[in-house]
Every structure is written in C-alpha cells, then in structure tokens.
Design goal:
Radius of gyration: 23 Å
Oligomer: single chain
Number of helices: 9
Shape: elongated
CATH architecture of the largest domain: 3-Layer(aba) Sandwich
Number of strands: 8
Strand order of the largest sheet: 6-5-7-8
CATH topology of the largest domain: Rossmann fold
Length: about 325
Amino acid sequence: MFREHKLFYRVYLSIITIFICLFILEMYFRWRMPYNMSLRDISIKSDNPRILYELRPNSEIIFTGQYAKLSPTTIKISSNGIRDYQYMPEKPQGVYRIVILGDSVAFGWGVELEHTFAKYLERFLQERRIGRFEVINFGVPGYNLAQEIATLEYKCLDYHPDLIIFCIEENDYKPLFNYYCPITLLRHLPQFIYKSYLINWILERVVYYMDKVNSREFNRGIVEVDRAIDNLCNILLKHNIKVLFYPDVWWLHGILKKYNLDNLIINSDGIIFKDPHYTYERDGHPNKNGHRKIAEEIYNYLEINGYLKSHKEKLD
C-alpha cells in the first residue's frame, strides 16, 4: 500500500513539474517573442489538394511579424478569401482587370493593404491612364508557383482577368509543403492550442527545417513546376488571357523557355531585395518603399510594351 502511494506521489509530482516547466517556457517565449509567430488565424485547409491551404474568409488579425518583430499591420481577408477589397467576380464593362498571384511578398507581409504593390499599381493605372483598372491580389504566404497556378484555375478565372502577373520568389520552385499544418497530427488537435507561443515557436522551427529540406529537392520541385506551367499554357490558350512573371529569378528563365514564355518576364534592377531602404531589417520582405518600387517597375513594363495602349484602343 505504501509503495502504491509512493508511486502515485512520484507520478503526480512529475506531472506537476512538467506543467510548471511548460508554463515557464510559455512565459519565456511570450517575453522573448512578443509578436505573432503564425498566420494560422487567417488560414484554413483547402478542399483543393493542389493548393493545400488558403486564406480564411472574413478573418482579421493585427500582424506584428513572424521571423522578426515588425510594426503592427492590419490583415483583413474579404468574404471571397483574398487580402483585398470585395471585388465581384463579374467584371464591369470597360474594366481592364489584372490578377496578382504570389506568396508573402505579393500578400503584403508587414505592410498595410494600401501599401502593397498591387494597390500601388492599381492607383498608378487609375491616375496615369485613361480607363478603368482593377488589380486584384490573390497572394498567399508560403505558396510556390505550382500552388499559384492551381489557384488561378481554382479561383481566379471566375473573375475574368485580362492579365495575370505572377510574383516569383527564389524559393518558388520548392515542392508542395503545407505551412498551415506542417505536422499531420496537428489536424486532430483543437484550435486553441495555437494560442500558445511555445507551440507556435515549435511549428516555426518545423517550418524552417522543412524549408531547408525542400530547398535541396530542386529536381522534385522543378518537376511540379514544369507540370503546373504545362497546365498554365492550356489555361491561357483556352481563356485567351495574357500572363507576365516578375522578376527574373535564377531558375525561372530556363523552365519558361521550354514553353516559349521566357519573353514574358518583367526584369527588375535588383535593388528592391538588397537595399535596406526597400526591405525590413532581419526579415527581408519589402517595406512600403519596396512595394512602390515593384509597382513602378511593373507599370513601366506595361506602358513600354503596349499592354495599356491596347486597352485604350478598345475604349476608343
């Protein structure tokens, strides 16, 4: 009997000790990293297996950074699941509609909606050109090019775009990876556990590790991208949509050349992601100056290459 009580006491003491340790760790991470370390509150599992996850309609958070502390920004997702205004799928008559697809840069990581390059570009078009323009942002943090093309087919075609612009990053060739749910077991756990800073820190480490693993799987990732671009060509042919890619990252030109799309890359002077005037320190994402610079480069390309002239001729 005494032994049973002694065993019970040891188990009880061990459990209490574990909870105390977890509590201390939780308090430490809340003190050490007093900012959002996850975008799960605005993300949901996608019904489309080629997309994996998407933005949660009608959700809203104040975002203060994930890999480094940033100034608070409001992230509000519309009812149609994009970080943008409430655009209707039916395109108004006489409107030239551009759809932006990309990952965290296109999404506007660390900047307000009005300071994303999509909104800068929309204002440039409205102010400098004759006609009506809409630039709709379908960017989602963590997406690769295959997911972006799947999103085009799954969502964007309903909005009848005239032009698609893919915002490409150096890591967009990586194989599909579910940033929303990096560990399968997490799908069965209650949502409230993600309020824990400790849990989010662990998930951040998992995501970081998987990013490193995926970055070494160039061949597998390129196969996925190759398959997706082949599908993109069929989409463009069927729906008579124009497409552009921005900017010319190191792996992009070669794979697009296979499909005769390498002449549709908007070149950048490269300062956006190197000059601290245009990016956040320790985070690497463009600030509002960087987003404005991106919008200027895209606008100038559209102007020089006749995209805007053809729209004016239609209006005339």
